[in-house]
């Protein structure tokens, strides 16, 4: 499965993105376009790409066909990149960036939902950049990696960067994409350990407060280094030698060394207490450093894991967390367990939440904000525009005709090969076996 097909699946299953695509209304204003993409008929390449995405989304919502992927979307995207003189890359981050660039030309709200403003506040470099993704280290905990990217570590005296401006409100429906530079090296336990990320420490509005915490963490780190240096002065061998010497002197009562024994026991106890105090203080300081940001004030903006892109035998597959319907959450929330769907071309399977923590070769993770459920989509819902409903209904009617013809022809063939079966006997072929009628 190509990165683009994985991306379109993930975008479709995220309710806010699906809504803005349907609300774009290009299909309403331009009318139906041909099934085969023809660049010569373009008015703008971005518009044609958006219309193919609208058609794909409506098919995923209402079509009777499998509609697991869309070759038309891929052709439109490739044509767009050629017209824009953009290099054709199979990298997930590049594909994500250029795909958003194309769609964002027509759906401006999509850029606001998917792009992150990174502000640089270094003395030597002041500025900002708009990016659809943040590159993180594959072998580090995600918080640690983000700390490095945004200048919160290793132990800086000031914060060097933050995301989102100081006065920006983070609306629901935001996507934060974290991309891994070397997916083959990542450790699944580190990468998927955080199903929820609190990004408060990286927000511009908390810049001054977080800067104070960073300085506090620097103070803890300096004190920790001092304690470790002091602890290094003592060795277990020294304590063992003193203890053995005391035991030997006690066994030689004729030497009259009671005063020496008392002094050595005092030295041993003093060193032991010093070591224990240093070890205890080191644990406290390590805990303070690890949890300096784990406070209620910095746990108000949670981003939940939504999609995981994995490289599987040189092909990209995507795992998407299923949003529960509002009805399920209201009627029986205890029975609504988190499940995931694995998309790999026409192969779609459900996987458990536990399976996610075993994934390797992860290329990207999407985190989303403020979306708890999805609306039911059917022929009567208002989510899909009427023009797109009509477009899908025409194809569904054609599919019914194809299915009837296939059933009739295969029923005739089956009877001719089995003369003992009476002509006219009903046949019920399984739709899953009709591979000739399924979309690629």
Description:
By secondary structure, the protein is an alpha+beta fold. It contains 15 helices and eleven strands. Strands 3, 5, 6, 7, 8, 9, 10 and 11 form an eight-stranded mixed sheet that branches. The chain has a three-stranded antiparallel sheet with strand order 2-1-4. It has three domains: 3-113 and 303-369, no CATH class; 212-290; 386-437.
Keyword list:
440 residues, alpha+beta, eight-stranded mixed sheet, three-stranded antiparallel sheet, 15 helices, 46% helix, elongated, disordered C terminus, Expressed protein
Distance between the termini: 11 Å
- List segments where confidence is low: pLDDT < 50 over at least 5 consecutive residues: 31-42, 421-440
- Give the overall shape: elongated
What fraction of the residues are assigned to beta strands by DSSP?
15-25%
Mean pLDDT metric: 77
Radius of gyration equals 31 Å
The H-and-E topology, N to C, reads as HHHHHHHEEEHEEHEHHHEEHEEHEH
Question: What assembly state would you assign to the polypeptide chains in this entry?
Answer: single chain
The count of helical stretches stands at 15
User: Biggest β-sheet: count, sense, barrel?
Assistant: 8 strands, mixed
How many strand segments? 11
Q: Supply the helix-strand structural class.
A: alpha+beta
Helix content: 40-55%
Number of domains: 3
Protein name: Expressed protein
Organism: Batrachochytrium dendrobatidis (strain JAM81 / FGSC 10211)
């Amino acid at each position: 499965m190509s990165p683009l097909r994985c991306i379109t699946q993930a975008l479709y299953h995220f309710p806010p993105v699906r809504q803005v695509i349907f609300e774009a209304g290009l299909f309403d204003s331009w009318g139906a376009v041909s099934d085969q993409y023809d660049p010569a008929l373009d008015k703008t390449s971005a518009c044609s790409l958006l219309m193919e995405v609208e058609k794909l989304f409506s098919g995923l919502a209402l079509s009777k066909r499998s509609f697991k992927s869309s070759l038309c979307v891929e052709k439109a995207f490739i044509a767009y990149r050629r017209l824009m003189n953009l290099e054709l890359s199979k990298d997930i981050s590049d594909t994500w960036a250029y795909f958003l660039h194309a769609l964002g030309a027509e759906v401006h709200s999509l850029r606001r939902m998917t792009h992150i403003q990174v502000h640089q506040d270094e003395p030597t470099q002041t500025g900002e950049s708009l990016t659809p993704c943040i590159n993180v280290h594959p072998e580090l905990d995600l918080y640690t990696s983000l700390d490095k990217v945004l200048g919160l570590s290793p132990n800086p005296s000031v914060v060097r960067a933050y995301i989102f401006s100081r006065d920006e409100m983070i609306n629901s429906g935001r996507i934060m994409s974290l991309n891994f530079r070397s997916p083959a090296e990542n450790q699944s336990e580190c990468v998927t350990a955080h199903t929820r990320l609190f990004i408060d420490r990286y927000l511009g509005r908390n810049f001054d407060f977080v800067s104070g915490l960073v300085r506090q963490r620097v103070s803890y780190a300096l004190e920790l280094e001092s304690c470790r240096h002091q602890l290094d002065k003592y060795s277990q061998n020294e304590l063992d030698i003193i203890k053995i010497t005391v035991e030997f002197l006690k066994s030689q009562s004729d030497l009259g060394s009671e005063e020496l024994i008392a002094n050595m026991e005092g030295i041993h106890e003093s060193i032991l207490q010093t070591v224990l105090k240093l070890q205890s203080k080191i644990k406290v300081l390590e805990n303070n450093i690890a949890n300096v940001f784990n406070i209620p004030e910095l746990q108000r903006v949670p981003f939940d894991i939504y999609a995981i892109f994995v490289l599987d035998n040189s092909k990209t597959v995507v795992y998407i967390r299923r949003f529960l319907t509002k009805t399920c959450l209201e009627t029986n929330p205890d029975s609504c367990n988190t499940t995931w769907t694995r998309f790999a071309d026409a192969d779609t399977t459900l996987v458990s939440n536990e399976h996610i923590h075993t994934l390797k070769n992860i290329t990207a993770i999407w985190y989303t904000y403020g979306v708890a459920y999805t609306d039911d989509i059917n022929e009567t819902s208002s989510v899909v525009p009427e023009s797109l409903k009509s477009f899908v209904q025409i194809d569904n009617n054609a599919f019914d005709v194809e299915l009837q013809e296939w059933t009739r022809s295969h029923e005739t063939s089956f009877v001719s090969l089995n003369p003992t079966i009476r002509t006219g006997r009903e046949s019920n072929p399984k739709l899953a076996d009709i591979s000739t009628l399924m979309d690629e």
